[in-house]
């Protein structure tokens, strides 16, 4: 391993931690891994840190350019919001908006936003994210090794959008990404700086089902949401980019293709503008690690540093 400092991207899952080491100068993924955990990553930071530290030690990594973390959209609130031009304070407006969505006091949430566009007639369009303070505090304050504490936190939807913009050709083209995780399925339609639609499919009813039955139910839920978006928003979905925990399971992919016979389904296993790991086994993990890579790319582009 060279002395060059790399950007560490972490994807906090329910039973695993996705890890990516990204070289911003070479635009390359140097290492990638999916590390098994006994409990959700943000619920047991001590164990997460131990597992991560062991992997970094084996990889010979001591110093990092940045550490960033992304978590599931199912642990957060993600909305695209248009803030009227007459509003003097965007954060204050979004705090009020959050209060209309939750029953708990808004002080229990960490709120962040990203300005997507500004229009003198319509207003300012922002991507609004709210996470419970307990998850943010766990990540920012729970690591005993402060060098591993994330300087940047995000949710997987934003991370995937960042990755598509940075890693794929024709970033302005409307994309549909299905991120199929154990915690749930996120389906997102977006163009550059525009999250057109975000839908989710729960995996709760899959508990106790055999694999084929579970995949049939899951694929039906995905197809149903795609159909609803076509009917309500007039968005056609001729192509789908697939990633997430079960995206590399050929049985799931086959079931999903059978459910969506007119849709071209491609695995997010390569990127036109980002090199994959030289190790073939680690390169094969990229569909699982897209959100970790996306947040690492974002940290590198915003010059976040340890």
Write the layout of secondary structure elements.
Layout: E1 6-12, E2 16-23, E3 28-36, H1 45-59, E4 64-71, E5 76-83, H2 90-99, E6 109-119, E7 123-132, H3 133-141, E8 152-155, H4 156-167, E9 175-181, E10 184-191, E11 194-201, H5 211-233, E12 239-243, H6 250-259, E13 264-267, H7 280-283, H8 290-301
Parallel strand pairs: 1-4, 4-8, 9-12, 12-13
Antiparallel strand pairs: 1-2, 2-3, 5-7, 6-7, 9-10, 10-11
Helix pairs in contact: 4-8, 5-6
How does this model look, in words?
- The chain is of the alpha/beta class.
- The chain has a domain at 74-134: 2-Layer Sandwich (Dna Ligase, domain 1).
- It has eight helices and 13 strands.
- The strands form three sheets. A five-stranded mixed β-sheet has the order 3-2-1-4-8, with helices on both faces.
- Strand 6 (109-119) and strand 7 (123-132) form a beta hairpin.
- The longest helix has 23 residues, at 211-233.
How are helices and strands ordered from N to C?
EEEHEEHEEHEHEEEHEHEHH
Provide the residue-averaged pLDDT.
91
Backbone CA Rg: 19 Å
Low-confidence stretches: none
Strand content: 25-35%
Level-1 CATH class name of the domain at 74-134: Alpha Beta
| Annotated CATH architecture of the domain at 74-134 | 2-Layer Sandwich
| CATH topology (fold) name of the domain at 74-134 | Dna Ligase, domain 1
Outline:
It is built from eight helices and 13 strands.
Keywords:
single chain, 306 residues, alpha/beta, Dna Ligase, domain 1, five-stranded mixed beta sheet, 8 helices, globular
